[in-house]
Amino acid sequence: MLKQQFISTPVKEVLADDYTLAVIPLAKQCEPFEAGMITTGLEGIAARSASEVWTVSLPTERGQTGNTYWSKTSELICLAHWLSKDECENIEYSTQKAYESVLSVMTEHGFSYPFRFWNYLPAINAGTGDDELYKKFCTGRLKAFENAGLTPASFPAASALGHHSDGAVIYLFASNQVPQHFKNNHQVNAYEYPRQYGVSSPSFARATAVSLNAVNYLFISGTASITGHQTLGENDLEKQLEVTQSNIEHLLTTANPESLSLSTFKVYVRHPDDVAFTRNWLEARYPGVEMLFTIADICRKELLVEIECFCI
Ligand code: 3EB
Q1: CA of 242 to the centre of ligand 1 (A)
Q2: Around Cβ 6, how many Cβ atoms within 10 Å?
Q3: Nearest CA to 204 among 134, 117, 130?
Q4: Residue nearest to atom 9 of ligand 1 (CA)
Q5: How far apart are CA 308 and CA 106, in angstroms?
Q6: Residue 20 to residues 31, 55, 137: CA-CA distances in angstroms?
Q7: Residue 47, pLDDT above cutoff 80
Q8: Ligand 1, closest atom to CA 119?
Q9: pLDDT exceeds cutoff 80 at 193
Q10: Does pLDDT of 262 surpass 80?
């Protein structure tokens, strides 16, 4: 059983538990410490500091291969790879190398199918036009996927957000069961976005379903106020929440083969002042869903909020 929880137990204590696959504290650092712990540079809401914890029902083995940190059971592996501040200066090249590393370490450990990626980058919106950091990241990621023989049909669910610290981290989950990747019929596939959004399209699916040890899970990618390929509700938080909600609801009905239920939201809010409204809006509509709120830059400058989901 794979579980995602948001808890305030000290990180050391969480890591001491063999059944912890990964603990992801909300802290300003984005650098490696030890296998099983993933610092991302993303900050939480003061006075509500929780960590995101992924637990499994078999004891984990953890280690490091080159600069990639991993934690695994017989069913799945979590791999994490950081880029230093200097490496982030050449984000396209460093992203490509990081993706090539994590994919090769994944394969060495006997896992063939990445099913969920997270990408946390510094100054994601810095640079204009094709020079925007996020767009160069997309080119590096796509080159690595192409070199690894991954086609758009096997791109998994993902999130890509910006933090206000130095360094970057890419982490993923992979299995040896073939996952199923889904589109959102209300949105252009990210990997088919038109040229205006960058030289290389973003390589991810809108949702990925996976079965581990006969238990089904659905990962919904970071989802935002985009219809077709267009951003809706510029400068209008509530409109963006409505469009985001309708995208999530659409995925729950069309990209959810096992009819799973929403368990958690990881919510990325650009402006700290928008957190209270966002929290109230979501809690009123999703009383049974556990939520973690983080302050993050979303990869399109006009987007104010992005939500990812885990369903069981
Ligand atoms: C979007 O739908 C919003 O580049 O990995 C969401 C999830 C977004 C993942 C990624 C980007 C990514 O285009 C941005």
Answers
A1: 18
A2: 19
A3: 117
A4: 159
A5: 24
A6: 19, 5, 30
A7: no
A8: 5
A9: yes
A10: yes
Are 67 and 55 spatial neighbours (Cβ–Cβ below 8 Å)? Answer: no
Give the pLDDT of residue 46. Answer: 79
At residue 181, what are phi and psi to the nearest 5 degrees?
-105, 145
What predicted TM-score, i.e. pTM, was given to this entire model? Answer: 0.98
Residue nearest to atom 13 of ligand 1 (CA): 190
Distances (CA, A) of 99 to 49, 62, 79, 104, 199: 30, 20, 11, 8, 18
Determine contact, residues 134/190, Cβ cutoff 8 Å.
no
Residue of 124, 132, 159 with the most ligand 1 atoms within 8 Å of its CB, for mutation: 159
Domain ranges of the chain: 3-311
Cβ 42 under 6 angstroms from ligand 1: no
Q: Which fold has domain 3-311?
A: 60s Ribosomal Protein L30; Chain: A; (3.30.1330)
CB-based contact 53:12 (threshold 8 Å): no
d(CA 203, CA 187): 14
The widest CA-to-CA distance across the chain, in whole angstroms, is 47
